[in-house]
Design a protein that fits this description.
The protein is α+β, with helices and mostly antiparallel strands. 35% of the residues lie in helices and 19% in strands. A hairpin with a 4-residue loop joins β10 and β11.
């Protein structure tokens, strides 16, 4: 489904307003406060891309990888937090905790924190707003493209020092685009920036700077194709099963497939099924019910070229 930023933003903003105001004695005042925060900080979001200044600016103190605000000691006093494109609001119950958070954040170059007078989340909470001062928004509400791309490249280059494999766009687009997101854009990044980020990532991967390319996500394939691949592999495994072995191999389309079937409930009504080719080159797992020969499974994962053999 196409990513429709205005619709998604409206949904995120509405959910955030509800979360931060539903417990208040005066939810109307809380709603007006959250609406002001949306004006200042941009749309509400689910989580940040890994290159966002709110994640990269604080000292990491030996932490190699940071994916959420809670990974950082600077934000240790957070409680009941909601995130926006430029910053976040958090609502600790202790005024001392709120003051500590403000002090720690204001020691970080590029970040600014302040207390709010209007309670949010609960009447006995002490809200703190944290803003990434260097984040400027485009007219569409996303981060200015030149900044987003530059921060992404800087973070990627830093990651190369400890990388063992190169992750494809489809494997890690959530950490590059933030959430919610579509195939190449999000509430943080418009399609222009997202398309350039993908091209840059592919160029860096092809250079070998991260190591060998690892494919795992098959999200580039349609749901119909994923269903066909998974159904083909699992039904073939069940068809070739001798009804006794828990693990066995079968040949299909020039590939050796390793299968395992286990009686999930020990009564013959349901079997868990897993089919794997190579070492995670392609795999799918699911369930088989002999009655009605019903099969269900999660989306297969692995290498696209190999997966498409089973369409």
């Amino acid at each position: 489904m196409e990513f429709r930023a205005p619709t998604v933003a409206a949904q995120e903003n509405a959910e955030t307003i509800s979360y931060l105001t539903k417990n208040l004695k005066d939810p109307g005042a809380g709603r007006r406060q959250v609406e002001q925060l949306v004006e200042e900080l941009g749309n509400a979001v689910a989580y940040y891309p890994e290159w966002h200044p709110l994640l990269t600016a604080p000292q990491r103190r030996g932490v190699e990888y940071v994916s959420t605000l809670s990974d950082l000691k600077t934000y240790a006093d957070m409680d009941h937090t909601r995130e926006f494109v430029r910053g976040f609001v958090t609502c600790p119950y202790s005024p001392a905790a709120a003051d500590r958070l403000v002090e720690k954040v204001n020691d970080v170059p590029g970040l600014y924190a302040r207390r709010l007078d209007q309670p949010l989340y609960a009447d006995n909470a002490y809200p703190v707003v944290v803003v990434a001062l260097n984040v400027e928004l485009e007219a569409d509400g996303t981060i200015r493209s030149r900044d987003a791309i530059a921060w992404f490249v800087q973070q990627s280059a830093a990651d190369a020092q400890r990388a063992e494999v190169a992750e494809t766009w489809w494997n890690i687009r959530s950490s590059i685009l933030g959430a919610p997101h579509g195939s190449r854009s999000s509430l943080f990044v418009n399609q222009h920036a997202g398309a350039h980020m993908r091209k840059i990532l592919e160029a860096m991967n092809n250079s070998g700077m991260f190591g060998p390319i690892k494919e795992s996500s098959l999200a580039m394939l349609s749901p119909k194709k994923l269903k066909t691949i998974g159904d083909t592999l699992i039904r073939t495994a069940v068809k070739t099963w001798d009804r006794e072995s828990e693990t066995f191999e079968f040949e299909m389309r020039g590939e050796t497939c390793k299968a395992s079937l286990r009686d999930t409930l020990d009564d013959g009504t349901e079997y868990s099924v897993r089919v794997e080719i190579g070492k995670y080159d392609l795999f799918v797992s699911g369930f088989y019910e002999p009655k009605g020969e019903k099969i269900s499974f999660t989306d297969p994962q692995g290498k696209r070229e190999l997966a498409e053999k089973f369409l």
